[in-house]
Amino acid sequence: MQDIIRAKRDGRALDREQIDAVVVALADRSIALEHAAALAMAIYLNGMDARETAALTGAMARSGTVIDWRAEGLPGPALDKHSTGGVGDKVSFLLAPIIAACGGYVPMVAGRGLGHTGGTIDKLSAIPGYDAFCGSDRFRAVVREAGCAIVGQTPDIAPADGLLYAVRDATATIESTPLITASILSKKAAAGVQHLVMDIKTGSGAFVRDAVEAWVLGDAIVAAAAAMGMPAAALVTDMGSVLGTNAGNALEVSEAIAHLTGTARDPRLHTVTIALCSELLVMGGLAADPADAAARCEAALASGRAAEAFQRMVALHGGPADLVERPARHLAQAPVVRPVPAPDGVVQRVDARAIGEAIIGLGGGRRRITDAIDVSVGFSAVAPVGAPVGSGRPLALVHAADAAAVERAIAEFQNAVIVGDEAPRPAALIRSR
């Protein structure tokens, strides 16, 4: 392993045998964590060429079970999306049941939080009883019965990526195009995804700050997916502020349920979700064009079918059968909730990354692989860019374990937001070239 690390450290390309050796060691956990960390950093600094990236992606996909839904007779297309990570991004909890309600199937293998961004699996851990590591047999059964399933990596689903994902999170090596590409596509290939839409985030809360760089990453992933026989599309969306009104694990699940049931719907979150769903429905042959697809998505929400699909998925994974009807009964609530005071004015700009870091400071994310997470903490009622604040209208509500944590989080949130006198120019929510 040291020879492999040395080769990549010195900028040399790895051959297939070396990459296969790394993946085998990652999959069976025989690799030393310091070796995995050193190799991740070497790849981050020196990159991988297209051949290396393809070899790493394929090897990680084959490190466990690879599902073939066509061979298993799934009666509809297997569709999925992936986000490069953001603050308050709970789109997966909306997209999966919407697609299921429209006749598609979503076999989603998701991950834990990376850096300052929340992870879908961490958010699911806020649902009592939800088993996100159920294995491929139950995963298949839930996809068939509910139309969607969201699970984490297990010993039989892209297991090599599971450890590498955690190492990247802890070693500041997340922003690496070959590692991002291999991580995303290995999980999707293992889950049998037939069509994929990428949500490439850009802005203060994204790993890719620049829209041009975001398109470069999106194009690289789309090209790699196509080479694997997985048609894909990419959207570049704004992550210059919290997506939705809540950020934090249980708080985001609560907001997703409110969105599905129509109790409350944030316009930015809704627009991004419908755009991603529409891409998938058209690619999967379930809608004639984007307008038809958007109408089908809206109908799935209005009829309650999407909320029902989400509830079926939760129950089949071991969660409460009445979560959608009684979320407050089941989702953890922080013992201390206080407003984040604001001066009079309008929200001009938000450092979403700083807000994500503040959630980690509250205990809602990890700084080390072994860190436990408090799923109850975070921010709710976050004022979006352009919103008037002050005079009793706070920037947000902070949810914390104790008074000391609240005071720190208030200061961090205030430092992350600029309030001014004039309404700012709205950012483009979905970027075009």
Key words describing this protein structure:
46% helix; 12 strands
Report a brief summary of the structure.
The mean pLDDT is 94. Strands 1-4-5-12 form a 4-stranded mixed β-sheet, with helices on both faces. A 3-stranded antiparallel β-sheet has the order 6-10-8.
Q: How is this structure best described in words?
A:
- By secondary structure, the chain is α/β, with parallel strands linked by helices.
- Helix content is 46%, strand content 13%.
- The strands form 4 sheets. Strands 1-4-5-12 form a 4-stranded mixed sheet, sandwiched between helices. Strands 6-10-8 form a 3-stranded antiparallel sheet. A 3-stranded antiparallel sheet has the order 9-7-11.
- α2 runs parallel beside α4 (50-61), α12 crosses α13 and α16 runs antiparallel to α17.
- The chain is globular, with a radius of gyration of 21 Å.
- The N and C termini lie far apart (42 Å).
- The mean pLDDT is 94.
Please outline the major beta sheet. 4 strands, mixed
Count of DSSP-assigned helices: 17
Average pLDDT confidence is 94
Cα distance spanning the termini:
42 Å
Order of helices and strands: HHHHEHEHHEHHEHEHHHHHEEHEEEHEE
**Which strand-content bin applies to the residues?**
5-15%
How large is the radius of gyration?
21 Å
Task: Categorize the overall geometry.
Answer: globular
With strands numbered from the N-terminus, the spatial order across the biggest sheet is 1-4-5-12
Structural class: alpha/beta
| Count of DSSP strands | 12
Low-confidence stretches: none
Portion in helices: 40-55%
